[in-house]
Amino acid sequence: MSKSLKHIAIAGNIGAGKTTLCELLSNHFNWEVNYESTDDNPYLEDFYNDMSRWSFNLQIYFLNNRYRQILDIQKGDKIVIQDRSIYEDAHIFAPNLHKMGLMAERDFQNYFDLFKLMSSQVNAPDLLIYLKADVSTLVNHIQKRGRDYESTMSIDYLKRLNDRYEEWINSYTEGKLLVLNVNDLDYKSNSNDTEYVIKAVSDALGL
What we know:
Blueprint lengths: L6 E6 L5 H12 L2 E3 L9 H6 L1 H25 L4 E4 L2 H14 L5 H15 L7 E6 L2 H11 L9 H16 L6 E5 L9 H15 L2
Parallel strand pairs: 1-3, 1-4, 2-3, 4-5
Helix pairs in contact: 3-4, 3-5, 4-5, 4-7
């Protein structure tokens, strides 16, 4: 295994299966996981109840959290999987909120300027794994996990995010990329799918 390997990031829409994949890869390769801050996020529930009021606060919280995670990864000596990359909020979630009129122009510009500064100071992940999923797959996963604050999320909102994900991933040039279509994958329960995903990640990293 390459000594330079440090950072794998899992990208994908809400409900794509990022956390499940993080756990799978962590258990198989003995990698550490940096989970997305959802359970202890002080803005998330407020955001889903009033998006326009809390959008800027939420995006700044996520940006700060992910930036600190990457700094720790780069300073450390462990291989770490990051549950969602630093790029997704800046290229998908924040622009989508701005486009929908849920984030003011000045807030969006302020946020994006801060993102550009922070992202210029850190390395891209050694591998970005994108979980590609149809909206129907996302809805199914979201319903199964049953988080109260996600119950008000609209299909239109998920579709807008999915469109932005596709646009972003098609122009991603920061580093190595692996796309997994999860519509027909059940790597949580199906051993064949588990083996397929592990092999795909191993091959992408040259392990």
